[in-house]
């Protein structure tokens, strides 16, 4: 049993040692997304307490954030920007504790506000990693990774608006996020570094954005329950599209190292 534990620790340490700058930017970028995904899952579990899916998404996302923190905390190439990672962890601890409580409207309002602070600190860390990399493809990883976050912040703001949590802020944020997602998608599509595979995946994300926008604009006449399914399902597809693209950009950067 002890030998098995030692072996697993050795494998984990090798995994950390093998982390590249491109992978680090990708992982740090996922922290931005997870701050928003956790919040929307918490709110939706309050709206639909009988739906197990939201609780599962919430639990998995909290666990992933923790794992990612551990990987980034032991990434030697980013030692000189570790103070920023400490700021992320300082915001994360109270956020995590609140997210694991039963979903109430009061708790959701607090988490909604805290998610914006956590997002600010995680984004700052991604930018510092990008600066360390010092290559054009690092910026593309950052932008594509931010698209993942936007897909989940779109859903978070939709859920907050639905549950009447900071409704004016949620509505304004929803419109701003849809506009930003679209404009950044256009910018990525124009990159001269794109491979045919990257361009194809970006076009998939564009199609999914157009479909989601129909739901937000009221073109679909759906029940609240069905609309939640459509919005969460489509924004998850937007997330997956951009996750693939972010990893493709990370491979581009690492191939130039």
From TrEMBL:
Lineage top rank: taxon: Bacteria
All residue ranges annotated as the NarX-like N-terminal domain in the record: 22-101, 136-208
UniProt KW keywords: Membrane, Transmembrane, Transmembrane helix
Compartments where located: Membrane
Topology relative to the membrane: Multi-pass membrane protein
Residues passing through the membrane, by range: none
Record Pfam families: PilJ
Main location: membrane
Protein name: Type IV pili methyl-accepting chemotaxis transducer N-terminal domain-containing protein
Source species: Microbulbifer variabilis
């Amino acid at each position: 049993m002890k030998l098995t534990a030692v072996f697993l620790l050795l494998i984990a340490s090798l995994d950390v040692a093998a982390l590249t700058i491109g992978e680090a930017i990708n992982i740090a970028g996922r922290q931005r997304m997870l701050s928003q995904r956790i919040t929307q899952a918490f709110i939706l579990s309050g709206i639909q307490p009988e739906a197990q899916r939201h609780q599962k998404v919430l639990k998995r996302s909290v666990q992933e954030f923790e794992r990612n923190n551990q990987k980034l905390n032991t990434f030697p190439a980013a030692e000189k920007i570790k103070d920023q990672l400490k700021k992320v962890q300082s915001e994360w601890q109270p956020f995590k504790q609140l997210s694991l409580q039963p979903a109430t409207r009061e708790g959701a309002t607090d988490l909604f506000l805290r998610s914006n602070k956590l997002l600010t600190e995680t984004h700052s860390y991604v930018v510092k990693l990008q600066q360390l990399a010092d290559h054009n493809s690092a910026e593309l990883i950052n932008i594509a990774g931010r698209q993942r976050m936007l897909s989940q912040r779109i859903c978070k703001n939709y859920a907050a608006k639905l549950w009447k949590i900071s409704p004016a802020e949620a509505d304004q944020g929803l419109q701003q996020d849809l506009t930003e997602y679209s404009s950044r998608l256009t910018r990525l599509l124009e990159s001269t570094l794109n491979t045919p595979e990257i361009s194809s995946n970006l076009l998939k994300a564009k199609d999914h954005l157009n479909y989601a926008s129909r739901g937000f604009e009221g073109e679909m006449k759906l029940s609240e329950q069905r609309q939640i399914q459509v919005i969460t399902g489509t924004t998850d597809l937007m997330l997956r599209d951009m996750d693939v693209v972010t990893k493709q950009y990370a491979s581009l950067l690492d191939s130039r190292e």
